[in-house]
Recover the amino acids of this structure.
């Protein structure tokens, strides 16, 4: 019957980690929406909890998370789903296929449209601001120009901050770590909600337009993932907008595939790099991969690429305002012949080393800054907005006043470009200079970030940036990039890193100019690559993205050398920036490999907390009691005499399925099998993955005293084939099994025959290094 | 003690499949090398066995295979390896890293050099042949020209055939299916041996030069894999060429990673497509993948690409004979503006459908032809060579006589190219025409395959191919491509498919010319894509390879549409050509997904044969008896009273490790634990994966009668954490576990506590559809 076996192992004071995670979010849901969101998604959360609960390091993990996604095959295994799957095989496979490819198309188109909308909006808003400022400067009304410039920036920034602070705190930051976590199996609260999507789109436009050193790349990936998730969730019962075809996507597997496509589409839209998008999804975003997904993500990214081609052809006629004149990074490498000398190689290696060093320093500083900001952010929405405004003012001051340091330079005599520039994306900003002269720092600062990158990469402007200007620009961007991440606006990390890298790349290029055969613009590109490698530690995807941006294979060898070196140097100091952010956010991310010390432990060494099992035909009251008093999401079901000779493991039942079953009230007075009856009263679809915040909750149940004494047959909803390991299985191998198959629960079966058929249950949290090392403090973590 | 439990299940007359496989190859090793090779690697084998053994369909599977590769993590798990791994972590990680990247570099360079050598040799041999023939034709000595042409072809073909027939039959064919099988965990006999590498390199040059409709792409992939395997195997004890560092690669995991890199390098060398190579390895070749491999394969393919760049720069000065003038496919798309009309789209869709139909027909016919040839090939080496000569003569006749059908056309007036051509790779072959005229069919037939592709793709030659010529050319190539695969020469499938596709693509392009805006050369490219998609069913890798060949992203949408359609159409008829060849060869390839009917079975339903278990401390005689009388490669080890309270599963011991242990003769008179002693007498390295054909064999043991009564402690060499499943686990989920983790053995543990601790053992063969459906004939396979 109902059992509470204190597990053989020591720590009886430890809580079950998974239960903690669940209870927290359950508690959260009961609160007012905005307060809940605020509490749950800022960086402060893990730090906050740390202070409250200092006894258990492990408790920090997962404290602010929704139930972990189930990626087991159980959907295929229960009788009820098997029927569904069979019918899907036979009759409705066509519907499923249409929907699968249709969704890929929609994700591609949607992400493309959002990406284009983002670019057009940013170019027009920022362009208006820059033109207004420039015209005031040209009239020598310097103070007024600054007020206009900083004023517009602050208003835009405050709007972005307010959206994030009040509507969707989950939309702040890059979003890539959260998408990565989702694809690893951790569904952070409201990270893929409609409100997050809305704030991410608008907030990103406002944030980038307001001149922050942030990019739209991370937000685009998050946007793509949100869009995919909403599509897969499908319609709304509330508004009667449901579609029976969508039931095929009511499982974690299909949802995950869609989100992978969405992430790839996001990169493709941000960089117009279809192959790069696929490789980004493969290398950085996804934790599980299969061949079929390759083709689907590629299809999605290709849709994005095609859409952009058409749109840009349309916009080049001037119908998109200021957008046609700039907006998308595309590096012009016509001048590159593909030959390079030994000194170029030396410079390349030097760039790689510098990239690795600066990149790991960047990660270190971002970590510190984010932890500091989280203390401010947790004080409330107003403090969040104040922080945003402060950083905006700082950025405006740097951007507006630093160009004054630079001396005016005479325009080049060969007039391939108009000098000084008259449009907003020009390469020769006049700023305070007299006619015929230009200010090189203003050309970088008083431009959009994309245009600044283009200027730094440009091979035409070989002599136009003074080396001191490049130094000042690099220091400013590097510093501002660090202090900007962590404030409550959607902020991508790609652009700050690319900008800072391009600045010091061009700096090195200018130094090496006398002996190098490479163009300084190419050095800027290599600098970007090196800093990207040093911070994000991606390799192939960065390589391919840069290949697609420059459309030239001949650069490949140099880019690869730079990335190889910068990644190696960076890895010797700390982890990649996204992994660091995952850690700060306290997300229980499962690494692909087991830690070395896990080889010296066995599976039962990490079991903690109570094991609660149900009998095959269980008393309703017992189930209710277990659901109320624990946060467990999975319960082993045991068949016992007289139904079998000895106690046997019958399966595993999920909390969400139990709730559906209890709600349907298929109870009987006697302890008898009623499986057959069950399926006539509940449909398979009721057990599908519910949409966000939907699904039966414990409070929805209304079970009388009398019903509590009745019995319910758990067999029909049990997953009859849970994955099991022997209790003496090496922890490392158990971890590999858990991670590779994407499990949520793993049952421990006893080695000796004198024990009960299940001796413990392992969840994601039991494999976290913090938990394992907390239980076994004598282990050497390295 | 020694046990032979007849397993609970029915079929007692079934042999253990895995044992059959092992016994066969053991038997084979004792024979004379060449006879063995001949017997084991032709396509005939499964068919032959089918006739001998008609009772068991399953016995066909794996009959001609070496022991299946073990991809379990066991290497990390035995105490003895754990020590090794730990020391590697601490002290020698640097050596390992250097070697890892050094090997990637060497594989890249080696494959690049072989690829270049191949291209240079083919261009020079074929070029000499073609120039000689052309000059004889221009002197109107037609018969003499044919004799020279066909004579050279036959001699080259016979040489290639003889190499394959006498030295290494494993080198015949494409090699991609075998590499794919290796990466799936099946090590076909001598497929990666040095002799295979040698024959593959030379045979491929001879075969391609002799004018067969074969390519070098498949052989290049196989070559890269061989090279990688030999590097990883490391040195030769026989010649004293060993290197202690190489011990890190004496395991299946590292070997497999190297071979994945090798396969990617092969594609990169064949097409000069570094990203395409990586995606090919990911999409088609590899069965297991991890993020780290992405970067390593990319590094390898980039080395190939860089090497080729340098080499071609060198060869363009004319130092490589006739090579500089042609040799590598690269399509020139300068003229493509990226705009296309509705009629272009119609043509594209039409091409996709045709490609799917023709592709599946191609696969069907290749299957029939290969099965027919295998009957001839199995008659002996001489028959093999005769078949090669016959096909060579057929090819020569087609190539030489068909151009006579074509009428001579006047040279174009705008002389961008010399017409008629004077060099061997020219676009306007004069053949029998009078001066100022050219023969369009001769321009296709009397050229190397690479040059023919270039001519078909060319946008300059818009009017030069008459539609009837294209029809004749297509029919000939399609037919010859089918009848050529399966003869005893190294023969890639890419080039025949690309050629035939280009021919009908240009055919359609010519038809659509009045209403299409696309160039006919582009239609040829799309035709190639469609037939590639229709036969090989790869998508992303073909897309990216074509992208890299043409260096133009604007084509992407059309190529994707074509591939999507042709793959979908093809899939509705049959499987991809490589999967078909795997099936013909009888290789037990594990699919990534479980078959639907497996959901209705549980793991114990497919157990067959005897289960042999050992006690933790076992009598030597019993072990010897088991090794002699079964072919099992893994034996569960059971601890029994008095050592434990109840019988317990202690671990799994491998045949190869048992042999090493028995050879070392660490026996004791009493039944006692001697684990400690074991490690002082054998080194961990002795248990590493031996090189090809090395390792201790049963015949090497020399155990006296007296020793047979002694005891040996199996604990030190047992894998203490074998993966286990409950006997009632769904077969589909067990299959997913087995495939995803790359296991070789999986122990079945009982559900009820009244049974022995292990009730069966599952191997790869137990998951084969033939085996499962053989046991459960009532199952519906669809």
């Amino acid at each position: 019957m109902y059992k509470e076996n204190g597990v053989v192992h020591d720590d009886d004071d430890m809580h079950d980690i998974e239960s903690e995670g669940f209870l927290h979010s359950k508690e959260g849901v009961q609160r007012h929406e905005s307060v809940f969101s605020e509490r749950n998604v800022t960086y402060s959360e893990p730090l906050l909890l740390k202070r409250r609960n200092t006894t258990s390091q492990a408790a920090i993990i997962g404290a602010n998370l929704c139930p972990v996604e189930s990626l087991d095959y159980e959907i295929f295994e229960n009788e009820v789903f098997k029927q569904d799957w069979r019918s899907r095989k036979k009759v409705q496979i066509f519907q499923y296929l249409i929907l699968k490819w249709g969704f890929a198309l929609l994700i591609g188109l949607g992400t493309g449209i959002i990406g284009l909308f983002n670019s057009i909006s940013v170019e027009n808003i920022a362009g208006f601001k820059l033109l207004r400022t420039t015209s005031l400067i040209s009239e020598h009304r310097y103070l007024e120009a600054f007020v206009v410039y900083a004023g517009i920036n602050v208003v835009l920034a405050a709007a972005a901050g307010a959206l994030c602070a009040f509507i969707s705190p989950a939309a702040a930051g890059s979003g890539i770590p959260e998408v990565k976590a989702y694809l690893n199996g951790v569904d952070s609260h409201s990270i893929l909600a409609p409100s997050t999507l809305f704030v991410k789109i608008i907030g990103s436009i406002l944030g980038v337009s307001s001149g922050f050193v942030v990019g739209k790349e991370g937000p685009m990936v998050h946007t793509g993932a949100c869009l995919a998730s909403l599509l897969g969730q499908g319609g709304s019962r509330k508004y009667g907008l449901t579609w029976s075809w969508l039931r095929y996507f009511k499982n974690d597997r299909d949802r995950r595939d869609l989100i992978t496509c969405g992430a790839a589409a996001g990169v493709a839209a941000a960089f117009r790099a279809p192959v790069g998008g696929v490789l980004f999804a493969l290398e950085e975003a996804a934790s599980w991969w299969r061949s079929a997904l390759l083709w689907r993500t590629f299809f999605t990214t290709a849709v994005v690429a095609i859409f952009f081609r058409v749109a840009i052809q349309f916009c080049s006629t001037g119908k998109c305002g200021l957008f046609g004149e700039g907006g998308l990074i595309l590096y012009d490498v016509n001048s590159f012949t593909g030959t390079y000398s030994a000194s170029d190689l030396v410079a390349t290696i030097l760039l790689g080393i510098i990239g690795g060093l600066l990149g790991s320093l960047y990660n270190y500083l971002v970590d510190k800054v984010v932890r500091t900001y989280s203390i401010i952010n947790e004080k409330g929405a107003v403090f969040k907005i104040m922080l945003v405004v402060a950083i905006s003012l700082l950025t405006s001051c740097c951007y507006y006043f630093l160009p004054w340091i630079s001396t005016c330079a005479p325009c080049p005599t060969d007039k391939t470009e108009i000098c000084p520039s008259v449009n907003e994306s020009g390469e020769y900003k006049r700023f305070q200079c007299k006619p015929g002269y230009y200010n090189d720092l203003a050309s970088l600062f008083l431009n959009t970030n994309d245009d600044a990158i283009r200027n730094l990469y440009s091979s035409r402007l070989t002599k136009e940036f003074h080396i001191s200007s490049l130094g000042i620009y690099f220091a400013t961007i590097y510093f501002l990039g660090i202090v900007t991440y962590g404030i409550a606006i959607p902020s991508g990390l790609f652009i700050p890193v690319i900008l800072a890298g391009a600045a010091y790349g061009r700096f090195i290029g200018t130094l090496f100019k006398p002996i190098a055969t490479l163009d300084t613009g190419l050095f800027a590109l290599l600098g970007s690559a090196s800093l990207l490698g040093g911070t994000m530690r991606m390799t192939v995807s960065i390589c391919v993205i840069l290949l697609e941006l420059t459309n030239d294979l001949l650069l490949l060898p140099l880019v690869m050398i730079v990335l190889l070196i910068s990644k190696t140097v960076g890895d010797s100091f700390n982890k990649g920036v996204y992994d660091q952010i995952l850690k700060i956010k306290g997300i229980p991310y499962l690494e692909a490999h087991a830690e070395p010390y896990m080889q010296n432990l066995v599976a039962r060494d990490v079991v903690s907390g109570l094991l609660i099992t149900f009998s095959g035909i269980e008393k309703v009251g017992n189930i209710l009691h277990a659901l109320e008093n624990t946060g467990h999401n999975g319960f082993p079901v045991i068949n016992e005499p007289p139904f079998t000779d000895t106690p046997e493991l019958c399966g595993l039942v999920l909390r969400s399925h139990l709730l559906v079953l209890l709600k349907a009230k298929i109870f009987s007075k006697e302890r008898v099998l009623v499986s057959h009856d069950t399926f006539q009263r509940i449909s398979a679809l009721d057990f599908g993955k519910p949409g966000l915040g939907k699904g039966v909750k414990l409070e929805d149940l209304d079970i009388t005293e009398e019903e509590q004494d009745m019995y319910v047959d758990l067999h029909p909803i049990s997953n009859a084939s849970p994955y099991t390991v022997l209790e003496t299985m090496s922890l490392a191998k158990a971890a590999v099994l858990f991670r590779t198959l994407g499990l949520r629960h793993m049952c421990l079966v006893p080695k000796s025959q004198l024990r009960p058929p299940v001796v413990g249950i392992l969840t994601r949290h039991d494999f976290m290094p913090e938990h394992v090392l907390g239980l076994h403090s004598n282990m050497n973590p390295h």
Summary: Residues 510 and 520 of chain B are 6 Å apart (CA to CA). Chain B has three domains: 99-323, 342-368+397-584, 596-775.
